[in-house]
Specification:
The longest helix is centred in the middle third of the chain and has 10 residues. Strands 1-2-3 form a 3-stranded antiparallel sheet, with no helix packed on it. The protein has one domain. It is flat. It is α+β, with helices and mostly antiparallel strands. The protein contains 3 helices and 3 strands. It comes from Methylomarinovum caldicuralii. InterPro entries: Tll0287-like_dom (IPR021796). This is Tll0287-like domain-containing protein.
Length: 88
């Protein structure tokens, strides 16, 4: 994600941030695709700065130690990642 953050800082829209690579997965050749997830207004209910107390309590119960908070609309909230093995 640091590369995505750099590209966003240079003006690339979050919706266009993608990365493709050939890598290994469990020791086998694989293709991996990453696409940035742009934080939307609905995301802020659980991942924003002013999370309502009942939601905050439930998040703390379900995800202790979670740090996915404090986001703003337009931030890179994460990545979708797909990895598939390449045929040999």
């Amino acid at each position: 994600m640091p590369e995505f953050e750099r590209r966003k800082a240079n003006g690339k829209p979050v919706t266009l941030l993608e990365h493709y690579e050939v890598t290994t997965y469990h020791g086998k050749p694989a293709f991996r695709c990453l696409k940035a997830i742009e934080t939307q207004p609905a995301c802020l209910r659980c991942h924003g700065e002013d999370i309502p107390a009942p939601i905050l309590r439930k998040l703390d119960e379900l995800y202790p130690g979670d740090q996915a908070r404090g986001f703003q609309v337009g931030d890179i909230g994460g990545t979708f990642t797909v990895t598939t093995l390449l045929e040999e």
